[in-house]
Amino acid sequence: MPMNTADNMLLLLEIGTEDLPARFLPSAMQQLKENTGRIFREYYIPFTDIKTYGTPRRVAVVADGIPLMQKDRTKEVFGPSRKVAFDEKGNPTKAAEGFARSLGIPVENLVVKSKEKGEYVAAVIEEKGAQVKEILPEVLKKIVFSIHLPKAMRWGSGSIRFARPIRWLMALFNNEAVSFEIEGIQSGNLTRGHRFLSPASFQMKEIMSYKSLLANNYVIVDPEERKRTILKKIERILEPFEESIVEDEDLLETVINLVEYPVPVAATFSAGYLNLPEELLITVMKGHQKYFAVKNRDGDITNHFIVVSNTSENNAETVRAGAERVIRARFEDARFYFEEDGKKPLAERVDDLKKVTFQEGLGNLYEKTERLVAMAGYLGDKILPSKKDILVRAARLAKTDLVTGVVREFPELQGVMGRYYALRDGEDEAVAAALEEQYLPAHSGGRLPQSDAGSLLSIADKTDSIAAFFSLGLIPSGSEDPFALRRQSLGVTAVMLERGFGVTVKDLVHKALETLRTKELQEVEGRVLKFFENRVENVLSGKGYPFDIIQAVIPLSLHIPLKDIVERIRAIEKFKENAGYNDFLTAIKRVNNIIPGKPVPLVKEGLLIEEPEKALKENLDSLKSDFGKFLAEGSFHDAINILPALIVPINNFFDKVLVMDKREEIRLNRLSLLNEIWKVVSTVADFSKLSSV
Q: What are phi and psi of 428, to 5 degrees?
């Protein structure tokens, strides 16, 4: 902690509670930090730094650089308009006098200030800062009430709401207690140690001693310090075995926020359980018990595990015995489900899907499967003819593990158990891999499917779900996305970009909606495509591509394979290095600025009467053949590089030909010529969106 000097006061606020859920603690600490800073600024209290701490039983904030006095400030208070405040001779009216009187200032101290809607009288008031300690009770109460966590509750006869009942409040400023009261709880300089190892209240006399004094009472209040303690002790425990924990940041963060005094303990289970799938073992240890699985140097799971207790080292044997007894029972349950599942192959579970609702209004999982099979057949014909049978078989079995005992008990193992069961049933390895990979990526930026069949099944599954929910009007809005449709659309985009499949988003969405037999197909399709377009833009932005280039290609992103979108971006990036880029951009924007926004007839060569328009038409016709060939071959760089040949003909046309000729047929023909140029060029990108360099 920083030093406490005459000009550098410390403030400490600790909110003691019943045990907070682990998932609440990071948000509580973040809110406490942000809200403290915001409220200090509202009250003109300067500070240099704010740090927050937290355990299951408390959240705390320490603010550094707090002065003894609030900042002085000047504020303007506006009153009536000038016309109302002064008469024709410039004398103050009763309105001006009343305004001045309400502020306790002489009327002659009023000034005239301009606002958007005219001139108004105003008072400029100098306010001296108060002593900080005098306003802290109000400030600290406001800070406490500013923390909003899920599932807030009331307790006793009180009316305030908090995530868990507040049991004590400690507040110190310049090492003196700050007194305020919330629901009968009076703040002071008392805090509490560990619930069992040091339950009595004790005084905090110096803010600088906050962390160390709590540590003496078996509370490590800094989550980062708890993390370091856990990892260091685990490493020391497992060193003799030459083993390490299976890395899991989510589990580690949960455990950090479950304990105040972490003591890792190594335990053992029967090696016979290692015959179960390792993902099942890890899930049992993590999901129910928050235990860390352990692996050897080869990366294989061993029969050791780590439990992090919230008690002293003296209780290690009791903790170990209890953990081993509990995990044995959990593993027995897991083995029972696993063995029972083996009595019925996945293929015989397809009919069971009829009993499981996918979503109200969208039928059951069997109907979902039928749609997946149709999508798989479509994608197989279009992209993977040689492996269509594998893809269709994977689609048929895709959801069957959802009705197995293990997945009902551990839903997070969907797909994973499908792979194990498919291999046990003798299914093709590619089918088994696809059953697991259909759920990838599981989150934004997560691991992508590695097999062709798995990638296509992932695309089919996610596209069907998005189309299905949109067809019911269940569309994400604001921050609400209960069916994770944004994540799924990002997943489709990421897989298509990574795998380079030759299918368009529009084709995918149309097929999915067609399979759903969606009413008002065209209207729903438009909404889904716009939704996808936004996700494609997000993914491309996340890859660091220039904003203007993304905007230039986005209009094409739904109608051509996404792999071609990326190639276009790279080609345009290269084109920007071309000496003729700026000149071409200027010329083509002149074209775009004048073409009409409605259809025009085809160019009639007999109506091209001026030499510059004839030359422009000849240059366009000469370029179109090679341009089209390069586009068809995917040689976007070559296609774009021949476009500067149009610079001189375009400029000559505009300099020497009157486009808006009085003769309607001549005028329309010239606009048609310019429109044809734009149609050709815009097949590679919308150049009007690009910036010059």
A: -55, 140
- Cβ proximity of 64 and 3 under 8 Å: no
| Average pLDDT of the chain to the nearest whole number | 92
Euclidean distance between CA atoms 278 and 284, whole angstroms: 10
Please confirm whether the linkage preceding 596 is cis (ω < 30° from 0): no
Cα separation, 685 vs 549, whole angstroms: 8
Both tokens of residue 538? 């997000």
Sheet containing 118-127: give its strands across.
Answer: 73-81, 118-127, 111-115
Give how many domains the chain has, as a whole number. 5
2: pLDDT strictly greater than 60: no
Query: What tokens were used for 467?
Result: 């189309």
58 touches 17 (CB < 8 A): yes
pLDDT at residue 301, rounded to an integer: 96
Q: Are residues 504 and 453 in the same domain?
A: yes
Co-location of 242 and 391 in the same domain? no
Residues 30 and 134 sit within 8 Å (Cβ to Cβ): no
CA-CA-CA-CA dihedral for 502, 506, 507, 511, to nearest 10:
140
Question: Which of 329-338, 591-600, 667-676 tops mean pLDDT?
Answer: 329-338
- Tell me: pLDDT of 547 over 90: yes
Is the pTM of the predicted complex or chain greater than 0.85? no
* 442 shares a domain with 355: yes
Question: d(Cα 491, Cα 513) in Å, to the nearest integer?
Answer: 19
pLDDT, tens digit (0-9, with 9 covering 90-100), for 500-538? 999 999 999 999 999 998 778 889 999 999 999 999 999
Q: Is there a single domain that holds both residue 42 and residue 135?
A: yes
Instruction: Please report the pLDDT score of residue 8 as a whole number.
Output: 73
**Cα distance between residue 571 and residue 405, in whole Å:** 52
- Say if residue 682 is exposed, middle or buried (CB neighbours under 10 Å; 0-12, 13-18, 19+): middle
Distance CA 621, CA 633 (A): 19
Question: Pick from 194, 216, 238: which residue ends a domain?
Answer: 216
What are the pLDDT digits (tens) for 377-423?
999 999 989 999 999 999 999 999 999 999 999 999 999 999 999 99
Range of the domain at 56: 9-69+131-216
Could you tell me if residue 574 is inside a domain? yes
Residue 78: what are its φ and ψ, rounded to 5°? -90, 145
- Contacts of 182-188 with CB under 8 Å at 24 or more apart are 182/141, 182/144, 183/156, 183/158, 183/159, 184/158, 187/140
In a domain, 250, yes or no: yes
What sign does the dihedral 236-240-246-247 (CA atoms) show? Answer: positive
Across residues 588-595, what is the average pLDDT? 92
User: Both 359 and 480 in a single domain?
Assistant: yes
Q: What is the average pLDDT across 297-319?
A: 95
Query: Which CATH number does the domain housing residue 613 bear?
Result: 1.10.730
The string of DSSP codes covering 559-600 is TS-HHHHHHHHHHHHHHTTSTTHHHHHHHHHHHHHHS-SS--
* Residue indicated by tokens 């005239």: 112
Residue 551 lies inside a defined structural domain of this protein: no
Q: Indicate if the pLDDT at residue 153 is higher than 90.
A: no
- Say if residue 427's pLDDT is above 70: yes
In this structure, are 467 and 356 located in the same domain?
yes
pLDDT of residue 246 exceeding 70: yes
Q: Are residues 630 and 531 in the same domain?
A: no
Task: Say if residue 408 is in the same domain as residue 289.
Answer: no
Indicate the residue among 341, 373, 398 that finishes a domain.
341
Is 47 among the domain residues? yes
* Backbone angle region of 218, left / alpha / beta, with phi > 0 → left and psi within -120 to 50 → alpha: left
Q: Are strands 111-115 and 118-127 parallel, antiparallel or unpaired?
A: antiparallel
